[in-house]
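yo, Zinc chelation protein SecC is done. seq:
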Amino acid sequence: MENTENQAVEAHTALSTDMLEELDNMLEDLRTREDEIPQWEFCDGFLAAVVCTRREIPVAEWLPMLLGDGETLEVAEGQPLPKLDVFKDEAQQARFLELAQLRLAEIREQLDAPIKSLQDEAAFQPEIMDTRGALLLLPEAERAELADEEVPSLAQVWALGFMFVVENWAEEWAAPRDKEAAQMLDAAMEFIVNLTEDDDGEPELNLYDEAGPASTSQDRLDAFGEAIWAVYDLRQLWRSMGPRVETIVKGDLPGRNDPCSCGSGKKFKKCCGA
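structure:
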């Protein structure tokens, strides 16, 4: 019976516990070459936002923004993705991308599945941590060693990862002209932005141990649930609207009888406007 339950969990989880541990270890290794490499929780928020962005963002854009200098990688047709300096070799980069793509596919599947409750097995489940709760469960001596470190609130790092995408692809997250759609965007974004702030409520829960020291407020847990529904709204909003379409302003074009702007000496209607 126990094996059956484990198989059921694997069937609904793209990344196993071993894979998540592998990712944590890989990111730790990347930090030996670059201090600013984020935690997996940040990466997961980043990937969720990539899925929700209005335009599909290719790997050559999002990978260097997440783990490199932000400059889009130049990829020749039919050639593999160039290696970022932070990876020790091509195999390590390929493995990270393999695991990240699994997570991206899972997020898309979860956000596109019709659900009625966040308790549904098919519901979107962000990779978040109750870091404060985990620290409170440590022996007192170990907690003392970390006393001076800033400890993030529940889902705060995840929300910062999400907003990192919003800020760096701002044109894809600009408010649509449709008033109702713009209001939907603003309302959804507000729930996620709220998670980037500290939880200053009265601690009532510990997500790692129900009997453990309280680390998270009920208000924060409720806000997290609202943010998950907001992600569903964002995915639905941009899918319904499709990619942005560049419009040509007629005033920018010469009149049909004006000289063509290409310098040919011909009238526009006989040249580029033909």
